[in-house]
């Protein structure tokens, strides 16, 4: 059992039969009333985002979650098929459960979050930064670099990324999977 003083970002809480991840939290203190703890919560097993307020010291129900390394195998009608790197057990996740499915490529490492109470997967995320190859982009205009101009590029996973004008087709680039933004060019 935990209390509101144990809340932290990323913690998964059970609330009204659903699971929510803590995005942000804080405390409101007033001179007359007891302190209140508030949290912005994002649904893990649903698409809802809510705000919840508790009295300070009230009980909360955190869910223990394990992060396990899986390998992406392929996508079919059942979803995205992943294999556990330790037990070689295979699972299929729907597209909504993966944070950036447009950047998945065969053999890529994926971290799956598993609810230890039910042993069911509740979500998956890619590593923070991955290297992909640009398969298509328009050529940049020479001399158009005074501003931080960007152009759209298609990468080998099929996803779209905005890249600087100097990036050319066939180059390797590093992208941030959390926001889908270009980070840097990578030497081969």
Summarize the structure.
By secondary structure, this protein is mostly beta strands. 0% of the residues lie in helices and 53% in strands. The radius of gyration is 21 Å and the shape is flat.
Overview of the molecule:
By secondary structure, the chain is mainly beta. The chain has strands at 2-3, 12-15, 18-28, 36-43, 49-55, 59-60, 65-76, 79-84, 90-93, 109-115, 120-125, 129-137, 150-155, 160-164, 172-176, 181-186. A hairpin with a 5-residue loop joins strand 4 (36-43) and strand 5. The chain is flat. The N and C termini lie far apart (51 Å).
By DSSP, the count of extended strands is 16
Strand order of the largest sheet: 9-8-7-10-11
Give the overall shape, derived from the CA principal axes: flat
Q: State the end-to-end CA separation.
A: 51 Å
Count of separate structural domains: 3
Taking Cα atoms only, what radius of gyration do you get, to the nearest Å?
A: 21 Å
